[in-house]
């Protein structure tokens, strides 16, 4: 997995004393410098590839999980960094993270919960195979952690109990998932998409086949301001350098469309280099604005309604309302202990404004 890994929006515009700017020579093969935009560099990055970054929805913190088998929390207003490593020494890597108080998932088939205040950790919640995704669900009448695994199950957990509240059997392995209450979307192997409603209790609404021709890689739900900001559809990314915009109940068939991204001209005539779309994130205020990150080591900003590109940058990752976090690394399979991943923060408030109609 070369270049970017994941994305999410949140955060503030205050950098505090978080880090410094950097213009050092890029040893990752992504241009002449690893920080061409002179963004703020996050201090104390993980030793191996970052698998996910997420901003806290209620506080000025950034959390990151990694293949170095640790989870880190950075304060956006100070130089404080908290590090947690699972007690098991046989962990193969932590694939995702989310805020419960804090939850993470790993390839060791176990999710972990972490007390936000004390940063204590306890192993909990078992799957039979690696856990690929975790999302927190905050409903009016319940709250739980949703985990998706390669054991063909989606499980819902009350964090006070060790047994799941509910187990949903699905046809294939979970590759990606997203939750925006009251909707959950799960992308599986063999290009499957399963839509759930979360009111009262989770239940399946619809199954779809991906409009993209190749493997699902990432999914992100979008809202509609004309429908009281309710979730109405999702963007799906795949390994083919393409994104699909899909409404659950389209008013017009033309509302659903796909577009190419993270592609470049190859060395031969009529040849394109095609890169996986590693993550997609929608802006929490401008619902038509989204960002994609790819294995080409670039991120792009898009206006979904205008179907146009807003920005393209030679960096890596996404996040936030006003802040944009980016990760630069070659991926776990190209791990080099001498070259650590780099995480950058950028004020993107102006760049993510949708185009005027």
Structure described in brief:
Keywords: Repeat, WD repeat. The chain has 357 residues and is an all-beta fold. The chain has no helices and 30 strands.
Secondary-structure blueprint:
Layout: E1 19-21, E2 40-42, E3 50-55, E4 61-66, E5 71-75, E6 81-84, E7 94-98, E8 103-106, E9 110-114, E10 121-126, E11 131-138, E12 143-149, E13 153-157, E14 164-169, E15 174-180, E16 183-188, E17 192-197, E18 203-209, E19 216-224, E20 230-238, E21 242-247, E22 257-260, E23 263-265, E24 272-274, E25 277-282, E26 289-294, E27 299-303, E28 308-313, E29 323-328, E30 342-347
Antiparallel strand pairs: 1-2, 2-30, 3-4, 4-5, 5-6, 7-8, 8-9, 9-10, 11-12, 12-13, 13-14, 15-16, 16-17, 17-18, 19-20, 20-21, 21-22, 23-24, 25-26, 26-27, 27-28, 29-30
Structure commentary:
The chain has 357 residues and is an all-beta fold. It is 0% helix and 47% strand. The protein has no helices and 30 strands. Strand 8 and strand 9 form a beta hairpin.
